[in-house]
Amino acid sequence: MTIEDALALIDTALDPSCFKNLHQDIFRLSWEGKSYQEIAETCGYDTDYVRHVGYQLWQNLSQALAQKVTKRNLQVVFRRLEQQSQILSNDVEEIASLVPKPQQAKSNINAYVTKVELVSDQTTYPLLWSDSPNYLYTKHSQHFVGRQQEQKNLIQWLTRTGQDQTLPVQLISLLGMAGIGKTSLVQQVIHQIQGHFQKVIWCSLRNAPTFNETFANIVNTDEQEALQWPTYIDAQIEILMRYFCQHRCLLVLDNFETILQPGQMGGHYRSNHQAYGQLLRHLMDSPHQSCVLLTSREQPIGINLRNQPTVQTLYLHGLSPSETHLLLNHQEVKTTQTDAENLNAYYGGNPYALKVAATNVTSLFHRQVAEWIKQGNFVFGTIQQLLKQQLQRLAPPEQEIVNFIAAETGNVTLDRLHTALVLKDLVSTTDLLPALQSLQSRSLLCNQEDGLQLLPYLREYLRCYQTSIGAKHRASTPEVLTSFQPAALLSTSLPLAHG
């Protein structure tokens, strides 16, 4: 394969916005065996910047071509693709036999749907397949509070059909940190849009199933029946897309972050889960009458580049103080408005953290929030696990940033971060802004007028418990980072509400 053949293949695989002039130069010169330093000198860019752009290029190619592409192996990968292409062209009929004929595919899918369709006694919408929590079937989730505007936005997007001169929404990303209530909100909304979809397909990705497993679950086959369906990814996507064209479906992909690569910025897919990205691209680029709604702690790559009315993103933030007060009342916890405001500020209005705190207050402090506040330890049990899971997904530059901000006594300016991290070679210049943007998209970082800050309970967790990540700068941080000192935190842990 020649370099021109490789570039022609890339033109068909990548969006033009992901393969601009510098990307092409990096690819050409890497193909010739040039180092990043040599490429930077040739193109007139900083070496770190070229390395960063190159890294993004290899990630995008890996996703588009469904196999790992690096600077070192790109010729091997493209020659292998050329060989596979020749094999496929010589064996078209055999490959095509794996894909059911249009009428056969329609017949097969409808047969499976007829067999497994579930209709709840409490709802009027049919469910093709679901492994969502049991309370999806209740008419209203118990003690659901707030989220009026978010519900309004989702309902408006989900019920757009194009008949009123507005384009129907084909993909919705519902993003927010762990425990913020993404799944509960979607369940609440589903009860209000019963008549707008023929099928609701709920897929939990909590255990990071492969695409083959998710496909088998959607068509709801057992192991024996699964052998009758194609295992070829393109064929599976074709079957699903044909179904989504013929029927108005809502596909919910819950816990989408589990199939994204941890330890990286940018929402790249794990190596054996890239087929999900292929499905999303088909759903965004092809005409159909269905919608996919994904919930995630981070945005998958490619979606944030889509500036089109058929693709929408909603960031879910914390509850308001009044909603927190109402939530605590539902939990039968005795609290004043002031205490509720303090707890809301401390936990950032995170419903899960607030419910865990309420359980602790109920079991140990006779439902008295004021007594619980006096003990001074507000990060415990499953709250710790929740934060640990989210922090473990951070890329090294993100880890450095959150640990540095946690060690500071006040808000941190961008200049302060640059001085403390970039000038000391803890974070590169090219990584600083992308890392900050990534942290904000994960809802872990708040951008205030006087600088950047973490939510108080996240800051306390990092200062008191999280001693194993981002350790490079800790020699210069306060002692509280390496030991749990609740007494020292007692006066500063819970922010005071004013008025």
From TrEMBL:
GO molecular function: ADP binding
Residue intervals of the vWA-MoxR associated protein N-terminal HTH domain: 1-80
SUPFAM superfamilies, per the entry: P-loop containing nucleoside triphosphate hydrolases
InterPro entries registered for this protein in UniProt: HTH_VMAP-M9, NB-ARC, P-loop_NTPase
Top-level taxon: Bacteria
Residue intervals of the NB-ARC domain: 148-255
Matching Pfam families: HTH_VMAP-M9, NB-ARC
Protein name: Conserved domain protein
Native source organism of the sequence: Acaryochloris marina (strain MBIC 11017)
